[in-house]
Specification:
- The protein has five helices and five strands, in the order E-E-E-H-H-E-H-E-H-H.
- It is of the alpha+beta class.
- The chain starts with 21 loop residues before the first strand and ends with a helix.
- Belongs to the peptidase C13 family.
Length: 167
């Protein structure tokens, strides 16, 4: 699982299919990935956090792993769920194209063989996996700017000016 802007460029045309290595990436070779759980989003982080806590791709595969019995979910099934949850809904919307590279011959194997977690033997809260709301998500490259903007707007003088200018 590789999360990075243009992460597909690391493997595109380079990953052999006969080396027993499977890779899935957050984006293709030409697009950004998207920050999630950011201040101002529909699902913001707790108020004490002033930064994004995840990205659409990683949040999608980790939440999927948390809500499924990994002895019953295959690599292929999770890939398809993550791909659908992370994909742009239309040409002008946010999201990225999850990609896969390398040896795909073992995609029918169960996830617990690789992630080592078995929810059937743990006390896990069962909940429905919803499509993540990417409303308000930002380009991953802008996450640092959002963090700094939130710090600056919380300064007393700036907060006062923003309030006066925006009222």
């Amino acid at each position: 699982y590789v999360e990075a802007c243009e992460s597909g460029s690391i493997f595109e045309g380079l990953m052999p299919q006969d080396h027993n290595i499977y890779v899935t990436t957050a984006a293709n070779a030409q697009e950004s990935s998207w920050a999630a759980y950011c201040p101002g989003m529909e699902t913001p982080p707790p108020s004490e956090y002033k930064t994004c806590l995840g990205d659409a791709y990683s949040v999608s595969w980790m939440e999927d792993s948390e809500t499924h019995n990994l002895k019953k979910e295959s690599i292929k099934q999770q890939y398809e769920v993550v791909k659908a949850r992370t994909a742009p809904r239309n040409e002008s919307s946010i999201g990225s194209h999850v990609m896969e590279y390398g040896d795909r011959t073992f995609k029918d194997e169960m996830l617990f063989l690789y992630q080592g977690f078995d929810p059937a033997k743990s006390s896990i809260t069962k909940r429905q996996l919803l499509m993540p709301s990417l409303k308000g998500a930002i380009n991953q490259r802008d996450a640092d700017i959002l963090f700094m903007w939130n710090k600056v707007t919380k300064l007393p003088v700036v907060s006062c000016l923003v309030h006066l200018l925006c009222s």
